[in-house]
């Protein structure tokens, strides 16, 4: 089932995929199969779930979401969640597409390298909303062209060893990309990546 409700953001994304590494073809194949199965399940939810963001008349002919090909290089693991030390306040009001305010906090920063470029993303937590994941909305050089102009989302949870993994193959569009009745958090400007992230969901 899709757990997002109108005036909420979509946190229904899997974290139990296999991590693929360049030296192990069997792991890469298993990872690609897991991503393909996850995407097929999401397409089925868009067609048949009562909470599908698609209008009822659009569901029967829905042919599936579009994605960039799954790429193991877009999985970055072993990351440490660093304390947020920026100038913005730790507690703030996150704006949404419908004007609803979502009290949020800057829970930490993940620094990594992607496509040879040093990057960082601030991870957010919503105040008063218990969750096992942190919220990472982001913009990149595909936003507004190949992907939704307001950005895409990742949800991340700590690994058993306390490290964090970013899997951009699981990047997804907010539900307001399909129907304006959904209220979706707007990506803060601090989470704009300077590169094209050709992974995950696309227009």
Give a verbal description of the structure.
It is a single chain. By secondary structure, this protein is α+β, with helices and mostly antiparallel strands. The protein has one domain. It has helices at residues 25-48, 56-59; strands spanning 66-67, 75-79, 81-82, 91-94, 102-114, 117-126, 134-138, 152-156, 164-167, 201-202. The longest helix has 24 residues, at 25-48. The two termini are 23 Å apart. Mean pLDDT is 90; it is low at 1-18.
Overall pLDDT metric = 90
Helix content: 10-25%
Count of distinct structural domains:
1
In DSSP terms, counting alpha (H) and pi (I) runs of 4 or more, how many helices? Answer: 2
Strand content: 25-35%
Largest sheet: 4 strands, antiparallel
Q: What are the secondary-structure elements, in order, as H or E?
A: HHEEEEEEEEEE
The separation of the N and C termini measures 23 Å
pLDDT under 50 segments (min length 5)? 1-18
Secondary-structure class: alpha+beta
As a whole number of angstroms, the C-alpha radius of gyration is 17 Å
Q: What is the 3D shape?
A: globular
**Annotation, overall tally of beta strands:** 10
Short structural summary:
By secondary structure, the chain is of the alpha+beta class. The protein has two helices and ten strands. The protein has one domain (25-202).
Chart the SSEs and their pairings:
Layout: H1 25-48, H2 56-59, E1 66-67, E2 75-79, E3 81-82, E4 91-94, E5 102-114, E6 117-126, E7 134-138, E8 152-156, E9 164-167, E10 201-202
Antiparallel strand pairs: 1-10, 2-9, 3-5, 4-5, 5-6, 7-8
